[in-house]
Amino acid sequence: MIVYEYPLNERIRTWLRLEELFGKACFFIDATDPRSHHAALLAVFELAEVMARPELRSELIQELERQKLSFEPLRGNPAVDSDRLNEVLDKLSSTLAELHVQVGRLGQHVRENEWLSGIKSRTGIPGGACGFDLPGYHFWLNQSVQQRRDDLQSWLAPMRPIKNGVDVVLKLLRESGNVTRYMAENGLFQLMLGGRVAQLIRVGVMADQPCVPEVSANKYAVNVRFVTVGTSQKARTYDQDVPFELVFCSLAGTAI
Predict the structure, then answer these.
(1) Is there a domain that residue 255 lies in?
(2) Which residues contact 90 (CB under 8 A, 6 or more apart)?
(3) CA pair distance 249, 222, nearest whole angstrom
């Protein structure tokens, strides 16, 4: 099954983008070839850009503190798995501690590094990072795998508290919803929300279905339209019945 996620506010969109970029950076750092480490550096540049939002850290701290306050009263509740609860609370506390000790603007160490800035200014040009354009970068790409990894990890390290915070919040968000199965007749589906509020909608579709969902939502209803997929034709409504799973996700402290 393929799960498609649709964030319903800008804060969740930003966290999902950060999750995607951190995933790319870590994946390519673990590789060994220079081209992969070039891709890892591009992800670091993108992370620094996304983190330029001045309110990013404060919003993440606020959300983590809100979650901690929501879970604290559950201590001693016999209906709650105490081990799992303590694990969540410990993770929230340690992540908050990491974020509170951070100083300075997020990603500033990347933006203020003249060597990195020179590379970044060329990567926006098609083929602009060729060896004849950036001989110093070409030299770095030909250093040992471990040297390149150490450098990449050093540039990523100041951003890791944000990664840990985003990981915690998105995990709690995804685990907050319950799966319900529906059928989209002739590729179309509408559900009245009845006062429910969600921050993230997840749509699960079997991988053998030749269509993908498009989701639109407001405070009254959610609409799902399945469209055909293909690399050589314009998407159109998939006019067959499509079974799918729908999950409304909302963090603790948000009405749903």
Answers:
(1) no
(2) none
(3) 13
Domain membership of residue 42 (yes or no) is: yes
CA dist 179 and 7 (Å) reads 17
What backbone phi and psi angles, to 5 degrees, belong to 237? -60, 130
133 and 61 in one domain? Answer: yes
Query: What is the CATH number for 23?
Result: 1.10.3900.10
Q: Is residue 2 part of a domain?
A: no
Domain end position, chosen among 119, 140, 172: 172
Task: Record the pTM.
Answer: 0.91
Check if the beta carbon of residue 89 is closer than 8 Å to that of residue 64: no
Q: Does residue 15 register a pLDDT over 70?
A: yes
Range of the domain at 23: 10-172
**Binning pLDDT at 50, 70 and 90, where does residue 255 land?**
very low
CA nearest to 106, candidates 152, 59, 171, 170: 59
Q: What are the phi and psi torsion angles at 99 (to 5°)?
A: -70, -35
The token pair at 69 is 């306050």
The pairing of beta strand 221-228 with beta strand 211-217: antiparallel
